Ribonuclease P protein component (Streptomyces halobius), 152 residues
Amino acid sequence: MLPTEHRLRRREDFAAAVRRGRRAGRPLLVVHFRSGATDPHAAGECVPPARAGFVVSKAVGVAVVRNRVRRRLRHLVRDRLDRLPAGSLVVVRALPGAGTADHDQLARDLDAALQRLLGRVPKGCDSSGAVTGGRCAAGPRNPGRDPGGSAQ
């Protein structure tokens, strides 16, 4: 179970993550991530913990299937909370294929989306750094230029 302090509950928090955050899509789910958001509902100046919320629509399946997917996603996110920066908001939206996917497939898609959002793997690369489509920015694009990309 996801601890209470790590749950998104308010509509405004979901909206902030979805509308003002970054997004990474995978075949089974879409992860919306907003880093360093402060909690307007918290008292004091302390930084709130990372919080997560889940959206599982009727397109995923009947109620039993939706609840199973939600429980699996909650369990997966709970194990990955330590990777998320304090104060961040995460919304995991299950896509229709999530209803027939097993736990390992959901874990792989969640890990890939979080890696991309946290800046560890560029878009177009898989988790090993290999190019999956397009150009992989693992190395410098223009080796004759400084890291900032400005020519002298």
User: Anything to note?
Assistant: Helices lie at 11-20, 63-80, 103-117. The chain has a mean pLDDT of 80. Residues 124 and 134 are 6 Å apart (CA to CA).
